[in-house]
Amino acid sequence: MKSHYLANKLLDLRYGGAGWTPPPTVYLARIVAPAWAAAAVIALNSYVYEAGRIFKATTGGTTGGGAPAWPNVDGGTVADGSVVWTEQTIALRAGLPSALECSSAAYARQAITNNATNFPNAVNGGKGLALPVAFATETNPAGRTVGFALFDQLTGGNLLDIAFSQTPKDFVAFDKCDVPANSLTFTET
User: Fold this and answer.
1) 3-class DSSP state for residue 171?
2) How far from 105 is each of 36, 89, 166, 174, CA to CA, in Å?
3) How many angstroms separate the most distant Cα atoms in the chain?
4) pTM
5) What are the pLDDT digits (tens) for 109-151?
6) CA-CA-CA-CA torsion sign (76, 148, 46, 5)
7) C-alpha closest to that of 146 among 34, 28, 45
8) What is the phi/psi pair of residue 105, to 5°?
9) CB 88 within 8 A of CB 76
10) Helix/strand/coil for 82
11) Residues 6+ apart with CB under 8 A from 101
């Protein structure tokens, strides 16, 4: 999923002649969010990852006894007990909230040289990452990894792309987060 920042740079490059040079190095970040839980107390602005999407609690409260029917539309909302969840695709294109990037003590974004070897030609609207990436071994539980993001800086910087996982993984102490070669694809949508 392309960020607004990247979409604007590419549009400027195509139309109007404004130059943009892709960064020589991009930085892979882990996106973490918990799964939904029944009868849980949820603070305003908390996040969950369900049905392949990120949802934000736009009204805090207590979740219901069973999972809601998660909307599959950008910006869709669903009531869940006294909580209201809002789908976040549109908001994520503007930037990744710091609450969604892994923050464990062992974590750091991983540098990737931005070249045709590491990112071969796009196929069917997707650009794959051809090399494996290894994050540091966790010494404490590091949350549920639900996807990955590319930035143009090691810290802060501009969000470029996001790729969500269809199979999130919980990381516990001494787990290693490895991204196998050719297992991560970034798309235009």
Assistant:
1) strand
2) 25, 28, 26, 12
3) 55
4) 0.91
5) 999 999 999 999 999 989 999 999 999 887 776 678 999 999 9
6) negative
7) 34
8) -60, -35
9) no
10) coil
11) 29, 30, 31, 32, 149
